[in-house]
Amino acid sequence: MAASVSDAPEAPRAQARGALQGTGGAGTTAGPRAAGPKRLAPEDARNAAREVRRRRLRAFLFVAPLLVFIMFAFVAPIATMLMRSAYNPTVADLVPASLEAIEAWDGEGRPSDDVLTQFAVDLKRLANDRTSGQLAEEINRYLPGTSSVVKSTARGLRRVDDDTLATSGATLLLEANDAWSEPGIWRALRNAGQVYTASYYLTALDLEFARDGSIQQRDTQIYLKLYGKTLWMALIITLLTLILGYPLAFHMAHSSTSRANFLMVFVLLPFWTSLLVRTTSWIALLQTNGVVNSTLIALGLTRDPLELLYTQFSTIIAMTHILLPFMVLPLYSVMRGIDPSYMRAAMSMGSRPIPAFLRIYLPMSLPGLSAGALLVFIISVGYYITPALVGGTDGQMISNIIAFHMQQSNNWELAAALGSLLLLLIVALYWLYDRFIGAGNIKLG
Amino acid sequence: MRGFPEYFTIWHVAGHYALRIVAYLVLAFLIVPILVIIPLSFNAEPFFTFTSGMLALDPDAYSLRWYEEIITDQKWTLAIRNSFVIGIAAAILATVLGTVAAVGLASPWMPFKRMITALLLSPMIVPLIIIAAGMFFFYTGFGLVATYAGLIIAHAALGVPFVIITVTATLAGFDRTLFSAGVSLGGSPVRVFWDIVIPLIRPGVISGGLFAFVTSFDEVVLVLFLAGPQQRTIPRQMFSGLREQINPTILAVATLLVVLSVALLVTLEFLRRRSERLRGSP
């Protein structure tokens, strides 16, 4: 059951021209180029072009409803996320006047009293609108520890009347907290006020802006290491599924049809079983008092139960189990089409089995192998559920940290930037897949 | 050494059997973890492991209490209902839109076919966590978060690629001249589509719909981000169960899901055979 998307858009047009030409003149069955000097009358050409347009439009109208749906339900959300990773108007919307005033500041020492006064006025308004907390959170991201400064100052300014604030706002601000005399908090405000920023991407790559605006390494390196670990785990899982899947697919492909169909049930049943069920099985098997540990103790192989669950090991083994059918199915369908007589011929002519396999069989099975390997790799790079449930601390992958920033630390912009980088990686892999295997050739069962 | 060619040495034969053993070990690796949870779900004790009573086949060590828990606990009954409501609605939406689109995509006149196919199949490839984050940002603006409508739309988008793939595969064996014949005999394109195309591609449409249903039924990441407490589904309930307090009710649910997937597998195999018969190829 393969879907083929091979026709180039030119092919039908050429056919149409050929066909329409055929009806207009003598029995020309060849394409338009072979038709030689004979040309269409201008009116026929126009009619033909109109007919082609009509048919193309009709085909497109069939696809249009789904296209609109996917644009709304899927593409627009992804675009929103990409946007979010570099676009954050929160601060610019909250204190536009202060940001305008601070433009002129050179970044050294304390900004002028006009800036301070304007900010004090803005802050009072935010305190009364109950939005000063949002501002505090945004500034805090650029200069940790300033959230309480902003919040307490805002509380203090709520009761001050507008006239006093307009004349002596700067003094009140400086009295409220010493931090307002330092340049650091003002720099943080100015940076947080930028509507478009690359800072989340820099954070996602373990970089940051230095004070002079250059880019430098952050003190704590988290995300690059995590990307590296994710790719490494995906690679190990891909290799394991290959090592396990290849012999199985080979055996199935060279069994009789009825036997192969019977064995296929054992591959398809896990494939169709809920992901949560399979993860649950591995928890039941691997936990401290689980089936594997009980068996090992009963056999006397170990005295104390092994720590198998909530490790990188349990993540890799559970994901290998879950993704193995994705390797076996494309391998099997390619191997089924390989004529066994090639191997027999090589061996009857004196080749030893291993060289014959490496030089004859393996190259012929490569399409299935690369399809399976790329599919498993792409799926495992973005995996979330299994690492979240059986991964513990060292089995976490990049998806888990994105979920953490979405749900726990509420740093949605950083989550979006990390997600965008992951998406870039996946799109690159998908492009490879499409180029070498063809996205339309994905097979199901 | 009967059954082997004459040029086979003892090592060839040994290799042949070694390969067979490896293949069966891998099959065991695939299937045993799933089968293990079935007896465990009848455990009378609240453990995730075999008790000595169970190993001795003592009838008192087995019980149906965890199954009873599923039907009496309101959280589970709500989750089961939600899973079916969302799954069926998402599957219908994805199947209707996907089938019509697949017919357009199968036309040789379709413009930008390669690009549009890649776009429509991409929900299958983009990591769920990215889709979940994006949908959370975007759907909030439309008030779709924590609603059934939001989850149905989200799950339908995930199911679309499977419908496209299965229906396009069925259409590959579809004789397009039948369509022209119908039109030339005076049928309107809609009528011809309904009376001629649909009956012939029905097995592909149904299996596409089943794929879309299973995708929704099994999905948990989008539910984690988009569902409110009222929209919790079975996988969502299992997820929090596995994170918070592990108890054999989850194993009982898992066993029921295994039974369901066996039923699905049988249905799909039946549809595949039927489709092959309709196409007249072995």
Q: Characteristics of this structure?
A:
heterodimer; A: 445 residues; mainly alpha; MetI-like fold; two-stranded antiparallel ribbon; 69% helix; disordered N terminus; B: 282 residues; 0% strand; globular
Task: Give a description of the structure.
- The complex is a heterodimer of chains A (445) and B (282).
- Chain A has 20 helices and 2 strands.
- Chain A is mainly alpha-helical.
- Chain A folds into 3 domains: 10-84, no CATH class; 90-195, no CATH class; 225-441, Orthogonal Bundle (MetI-like fold).
- In chain A, a hairpin with a 5-residue loop joins β1 and β2 (215-217).
- In chain A, α11 (223-253) crosses α17.
- By secondary structure, chain B is an all-alpha fold.
- Chain B folds into 2 domains: 10-61, no CATH class; 75-246, MetI-like (MetI-like fold), CATH 1.10.3720.10.
- Chain B contains 12 helices and no strands.
- The longest helix of chain B is centred in the first third of the chain and has 33 residues, at 74-106.
- The mean pLDDT of chain B is 88.
- Classes of the chains: A mainly alpha (445), B mainly alpha (282).
